[in-house]
Amino acid sequence: MIRSFNQHILRKTRLLDGLWDFVTDPGNAGTTEEWYKHFPSDSRKLVVPSCWNNELGLFEYIGAAWYRTYFDTTQDTNVRLIFEGILHHADVYVDGQHLGYHFGGYTQFSTLLPHLAQGRHELIIRVDSTLDWQTLPTDVADWYSYGGIIRSVELQELPDVYIDTLKIDYDLTDDQADIRLQVQIHSLSDKDAEIAVNASTEGLAFPASTVQLAAGQSETLTLLGSLSNVRKWDVGAPELYTFTVRTDDDDLIDRTGFRTVKVDNGQILLNGKKLYLQGVNRHEEHPEWGFAFPPKLMLKDLAILQDLGCNIVRGSHYPQSQFWVDLLDEHGMLLWSEIPMWGCFMSTETLASPLFAERGVRMLDEMITRDYHHPSIIFWGAHNEIDTRTTEALELTKKFVGKIRSMDESRLVTYATMHPVEDIVLSYFDVIGINKYYGWYEGNVNGFRDMLHNYYRNAEAQGAGGKPLIMSEFGAAGIFGDAGWEPRLFSEDYQADVVRQALTIFREDPRIVGTLIWHFADIRVDVRSDRPYFRDRARSFNNKGLLNEYRKPKLAYRLVKEIYRSER
Ligand code: ADA
């Protein structure tokens, strides 16, 4: 995968990125005509990773498409293919065999090909970007519904006994970390084996262990060790530790940082110190690349966030590239990570759908599994703007929050509500996020004062009064370059005014522990002539960015920079 460090030195890995054969399949003929066996000859080339909706003639294409590439193996070997992101449905075929199906465009999955013969192999993927009322996101969401293989595809050659997973947990007391590694070893061999496992990090070698592995089985090994004088990971002080696990012929390298995150007395404490969060929401999107956001631009987006004075970014509204999270780890920037559960127009039928819930739970699982070790992640977000006044939302919240807490007790669980005054799910979360757009969709900016007053009343009534509160979305649209003598709607001046007044209100309220402006940069939106949604989105963009889509700053950017860099 594209990471900011090597995950393997011994294990052979390579990216299959590059030019693939590509053909759209608007009538879904491919499955019946077995395109995985006879790929159509009229295909064109497309770069992987990319979104097809950035290509000529495919700007608005939503539906199925087929991709093909080849890979060679120089000996009989075990192959694992890892797909970091495919929007949204993916069927994987190798040499004409269906190997698996995955739903979920922003989470990673893999397929295993044990004992693959030496030679050339054909890899075909059927990708379908069609969404409906039971998908995450559903077919109505305020960002463009891109399709494609949006992140890298990696091929790994695995020995017969290989290191499958590594999980690093720790307890931090003062500057001592008591560390627990769980290493899962898997056998594809037809013989029993005894495998020596070594693990280390800077300043610590875990006691060497051996594991007895029956043919074809998995074993999980627990290794314990303590590290003193730990350098803690913190905002702006990104101390990281690299862990290496090795057997004779395989390895796995990962990285983490030691820090504690807690809620106490209405405040969020990082390493015991009170945090005030200043940030923005950011889609991983660009008009040329869609969601196939290139690493070079990630580095630039990060530099912009730092320039703006942010210490946090919300990964709205889905798990973002792992390279991005690596960069945040390395630069001491916090992240709110969430699944693509965008509920503004969601029906209660969707909230009550077992398939929808199951998909959400699986996405949470995939998000947390992939990103468990990143110290930058402070919050797991369960959902955004679902109708949290309803019992359907309450039941779903229980499932989602239960799932998150069962996998990770070291982080805080949050969500973004658009019904703060009537919300009935507050008590399930550690931190509450409120999305409100006074000055844009409703009333003027002073509306925030009444709303906050009424929210606090509701929170008290539900026994959630002491929970830290983040203003997780607020803002206004400003068309880049549209300035005037007075702040008209849609002008840069109007947007700057709304954001400035809102920040003034929020920064005076001691119960608010952070602000996340909507949005970092303008993003493409799914405005269709036959649907009622998002009709106010001029240019088919959500224009509430502090920057335009090409990352040019608007007036609001300069103003927020001044505010975020000043004392509260
Ligand atoms: C919501 C939503 C965002 C965006 C925003 C807006 O709060 O969570 O994704 O749609 O509103 O611009 O209206």
- The count of β-strands is 33
What's the name of the CATH homologous superfamily of the largest domain? Answer: Glycosidases
Residue-averaged pLDDT, rounded?
97
Strand content: 25-35%
- What's the story with the biggest beta sheet? 8 strands, parallel, barrel
State the helicity in percent bands: 10-25%
The CATH top-level class label of the largest domain? Alpha Beta
Summed up, the helix count is 9
How many angstroms separate the termini? 41 Å
Structural class: alpha+beta
Q: Characterize the overall form.
A: globular
Radius of gyration: 24 Å
Order of neighbouring strands in the sheet with most strands: 24-25-26-27-28-29-30-31
- The CATH architecture classification of the largest domain is Alpha-Beta Barrel
Which molecules other than protein and nucleic acid are bound? Answer: alpha-D-galactopyranuronic acid
Low-pLDDT runs: none
InterPro entries: Beta-gal/glucu_dom_sf, Galactose-bd-like_sf, GH, Glyco_hydro_2, Glyco_hydro_2_cat, Glyco_hydro_2_N, Ig-like_fold, Ig-like_GH2
Protein name: Beta-glucuronidase
Domain Glycoside hydrolase family 2 immunoglobulin-like beta-sandwich: 161-256
Domain Glycoside hydrolase family 2 catalytic: 261-565
